[in-house]
Each structure stands twice: as C-alpha cells, then as structure tokens.
C-alpha cells in the first residue's frame, strides 16, 4: 500500500528505499518497546524537584487514567507508568520552567497582560480535561508548570474525578480581616512554600461548594481559576488567612470577604471577571462551558487558537533540557507501601522516536 502510494507520487526509487528502511527500523523499535517491561532501572535519578501532599494509591490511579486519556498541548504528557513491589511510577514530560507558584513568589504580582496570557492558557487546559468529563479539583499555582518557552501546562491530577455529589455541611461566620494589601502580601510570601508542601496543603483555591460538601461539578475548577487570577494581580489569594480553617470560613462566606485593594489598581474588566468566577455556581461563568469565560471583555483580543504559537509572557532561564534551577531542591524520598494493582502499566508509543523525548520527568 505504502509502496504503491510512493510510486504514484513519483518519489525517486532511492528515496523510496530510504523511507521504507526508516519505517522498518521504527517498526522494530516499536515492537521491542512493546515487549520490554519498563522498570526503574531504565531511568537515571537526577534530583527530586517536588513532593506532593497526597500519595494514596487511588490518587495515583486517577492521575494515570486522566493522563493516558487526555491528549492536549496544555496538559503534561504521560510517557510511561509502571510499578514495582514498593512504588507506583509515572514517567512524565519534564518542564524545566518551574511552576507558577515560584514565578509569583519571584515577581509578587503580574501585569494584567502577563496574567491574561497565563489565565487564557489555564482556561484551555481546564477546558481540555472537562471535554473528557473530568473535574481537576486541585487547580492552584503549584500545579501550573512552565515549559522552557514559558508556556503553561496543567499537572497533578491525583484529585481529579468524574462529576459527583456529596452531603451538605456548613461553617460559621469568621471575623473580618483588617490587614492592608502589603501586610497580607508579606505574610503570604513568608508562609507560601511551607503551606504548599504541608500534609494538609492550602485551601485557598477550593470552591465554596466543595468546602460545604454540596453537590459540585466542573464549575469548581473555574472558581479556582478566579482565585489564581486574583493572586496574580493582587499578590495573594482572595481569602488568605493565617490558618487554613479561617481561610475556609472566608471562602464559604465569600460575599463578605471578596475585596479588591485599591493599591492593586485592577481594571474594571479584571474585577468583573474575578467576581463572576468567585460566586455562586448558578451565576458563575463557565457553568455552561469555557466559551462563557473566553467571551468575557477582559480577554478581548486574545487569539485562542494561536496562544501556544505566540511568545510567552515570561521566558524562564533554562540552561539545557535537564536544568532544575527553577525548582526547589528536596533531599529525601519518603517510603510508602501499597499492594500492586492490574491495569497500571502504560506506554505512550508516540515517543518511540528519541528526538521527541527531550524532557522526561
């Protein structure tokens, strides 16, 4: 079939032979990779660049399932998954640009143009998983990674789920905070990294309906988008408090606590978009689909189809594909033991060509 097509296309005989030899070589590599049982001995450990607060087997299963199913330029690519007697492994694309949390810690705030670029790419990332009927449920700056060109990809799908409902519970009203924007920013910067790697984590980006354990759906991810946009422009999350419980109380009582500091000088369009994301589910933009958010005036002029081809708002300093300077350093790995389970092993055969595997993490 291929030979006939090459002949019909009047490809020179010598070039035909070269093409067929190349394909035969790739087919051999493909079959060898199919038969090869992947293991940790196939990889070289360079350094630890992060540690999650959640390590349960069910979370790893959820992440593996989504990564194997969703193919998007805005989602971190999964290359392999396998297990041994002690650990479950996900071999993923390595993005040397670091994460959005680190960028925000270095810059304090972004301009509206910079924020617009990264919020737009986050919209496309969230939209891509929603199209596969997944809710992320843990969207935060830590999980927004940058490639070497500064483009954004969504990661960490350990808490992702299909739409579900739950029982209702409520939290009481909190006392109002009277801190200035600069005081809030200073306290947030001091505690941000510690909160990110604590066992409890930070609830700053969790939607009110999730905390109230009401029925919730994909709309909860758009709340998180609003909280991240606020942090990009103001310097700290909208409901930040000294302790997680106070933050939760502020979130469920968002009407009393969503404030825009005058010093931040947000545009009316930015305030409007944030207000339409950090609100009741019934009024929240995105409830009927990502197109509602894309149509908001704050995004006027954004070329959604060309975002990934555009120059990024921030170009990270990267010295080689394996450079880890944009990540924190960690010294040890914590042991964990769980039983093996069937159906975990995965290979992405689009990466048989070594040239396509420049970054693996």
TrEMBL record:
It is an enzyme of class 2 (transferase). ATP binds at residue 77. Residues 300-356 form the AGC-kinase C-terminal domain. Residues 1-299 form the Protein kinase domain. It comes from Eleusine coracana subsp. coracana. CDD domains: MobB_NDR_LATS-like, STKc_NDR_like. Pfam families: Pkinase, Pkinase_C. PROSITE patterns: AGC_KINASE_CTER, PROTEIN_KINASE_ATP, PROTEIN_KINASE_DOM, PROTEIN_KINASE_ST. GO terms for molecular function: ATP binding; protein serine/threonine kinase activity. Its EC number is 2.7.11.1. It comes from the Eukaryota. This is non-specific serine/threonine protein kinase. One of its GO terms (cellular component) is cytoplasm. It catalyses: L-seryl-[protein] + ATP = O-phospho-L-seryl-[protein] + ADP + H(+); L-threonyl-[protein] + ATP = O-phospho-L-threonyl-[protein] + ADP + H(+). Belongs to the protein kinase superfamily. AGC Ser/Thr protein kinase family. Coiled coil: none annotated. Keywords: ATP-binding, Kinase, Nucleotide-binding, Phosphoprotein, Serine/threonine-protein kinase, Transferase.
């Amino acid at each position: 079939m291929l030979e006939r097509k090459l002949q019909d296309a009047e490809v020179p005989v010598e070039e035909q032979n070269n093409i067929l030899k190349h394909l035969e070589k790739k087919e051999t590599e493909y079959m060898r990779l199919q038969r090869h049982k992947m293991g940790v001995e196939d990889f070289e450990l360079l350094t630890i660049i992060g540690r999650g607060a959640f390590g349960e087997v069910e979370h790893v299963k959820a992440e593996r399932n989504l990564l194997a199913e969703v193919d998007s330029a805005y989602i971190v690519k999964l290359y392999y998954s396998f297990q041994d007697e002690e650990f479950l492994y996900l071999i993923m694309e390595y993005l040397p640009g670091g994460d959005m949390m680190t960028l925000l810690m270095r810059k304090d705030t972004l301009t509206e143009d910079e924020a617009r670029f990264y919020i737009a790419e986050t919209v496309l990332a969230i939209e891509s998983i929603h199209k596969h009927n997944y809710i992320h449920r843990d969207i935060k700056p830590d999980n927004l990674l940058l490639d070497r060109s500064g483009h954004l990809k969504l990661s960490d799908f350990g808490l992702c789920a299909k739409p579900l409902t739950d029982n209702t519970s409520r939290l009481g009203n909190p006392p109002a905070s009277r801190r200035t924007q600069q005081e809030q920013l200073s306290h947030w910067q001091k505690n941000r990294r510690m909160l990110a790697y604590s066992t409890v984590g930070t609830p700053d980006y969790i939607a009110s309906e999730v905390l109230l354990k009401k029925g919730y759906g994909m709309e909860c991810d758009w709340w998180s988008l609003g909280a991240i946009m606020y942090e990009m422009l103001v310097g700290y999350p909208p409901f930040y408090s000294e302790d997680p419980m106070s933050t939760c109380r502020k979130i469920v009582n968002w009407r009393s606590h969503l404030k825009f500091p005058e010093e931040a000088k947000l545009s009316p369009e930015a305030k409007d978009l944030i207000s339409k994301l950090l609100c009741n589910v019934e009024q929240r933009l995105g409830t009927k689909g990502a197109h509602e958010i894309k149509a908001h005036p704050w995004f006027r002029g954004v070329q959604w189809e060309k975002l990934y081809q555009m120059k990024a708002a921030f170009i990270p300093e990267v010295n080689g594909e394996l450079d880890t300077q944009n990540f924190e350093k960690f010294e040890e790995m914590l042991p964990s033991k769980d039983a093996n389970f069937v159906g975990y092993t995965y290979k992405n055969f689009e990466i048989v060509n070594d040239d396509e595997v420049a970054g693996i993490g």
